[in-house]
Amino acid sequence: MNSTLSFAAGLLLPTLLAPFALAQEATGTDRERIAELERRLELLSEEIAGAQLGAARPPLGDGAFGFAPGAARIYDVEEGVSIGGYGEIRYDDVQGGADTSDVQRAIIYLGYRFDEKWLLNTEIEFEHATVENGSGADSSPGSVSVEFAYVEYQHSPTFGARAGLLLVPVGLVNELHEPSNFLSANRPFVEQRIIPSTWRENGFGVFGTVADVWDWRVYVVNGLDASGFSSNGLRDGRQKGGKAQSDDLAAVARVDYVGTPGLMVGGSVYYGHSGQRTPGLSANVNTTIAEGHVDYRAAGLHLRALFARTELDDVAELDAALGLVGNATVGESQSGWYAEAGYDVLHGSGSEQSLVPFVRYEELDTQGSVPSGFASNPARDREYVTFGVAWSPIPELVLKADYVNGDNGAGTEPDLFRLGLGWVF
Length: 425
What we know:
The chain is mainly β. It has four helices and 16 strands. Keywords: Coiled coil, Signal.
């Protein structure tokens, strides 16, 4: 690559420099042409210099406007295309169950900045390695999805609007779900079942920052689909942007304090109807999700905590429409919380490596309360203690190992040993 550019430069430079010999005599249009040639020469020189410097990788940065570093690549581009991505491979040893290894996801971020005001940002996700038709040994669990795809207008550095398939701005992981953003081999259980990450819906909204102290986002999106609700939470009510039923809409608002370096404290509220066109259901199934969170990363410390609660109306009517009886009922309330602490033992060593032992405790109950005449399933009341270590040889790569001690009211929750490999660029 370097020799090719140098050869090209050797051919082009004499041509580019020749007009300067006439600069003393040139006037008007000639001077404009010479100025343009000077500009092109400077660009060519920068390209050659960049190639000769070798593979100096662009820094990941800190993310921007509610997006993790890889997803925020487009915000570093003045015009044209941006490319980023991430991926995760995981091995799960389920105590007393089947062990699995999985290319959980491979992601490509592809963005395009049209000009200083308008941009497009997308995330294309490949899950579980293979997507193919077939049955038996030829079948596969894989899928291809658009994780987000939105057009954005940046009115100013502190205010903008976006529309398309949007990540719902709830919790610590849903928007910032790259593997370098969480220490465990998989995302916290609370942010899978109480907050159904990764959660995206079609919609539009506005976002901004106030005095570099407050970040905020307000969106209107299509509502969840209550026909997917179960005793295990709301996760299967996500519509993911594909022919999403939009008879019922929802609004979500989020505010974070970011005025202290390394600290983010905030919360979000989601409210909307989820009835959609569920057969046999005429109720709205009003759905509220509220959460508060704190994340602190400084001086080698990694501290975070989150509490989330969901409230549903019309659950008895929903159970009847879905044919749910006994302890299979959808929960009228669901809640969960976790607290996590880790410390980078290589902090201050001058190395770009990090080695973070951590521990996390979490509780969740997807049947915190149930309609009259129904019973809760004790297996839905769970707690987990996760302890492990995350090693990053460079900021873009992370290797993880953890052990999860699980328990529930029925005594049936298995323990897990997990290994993870993640990357982001």
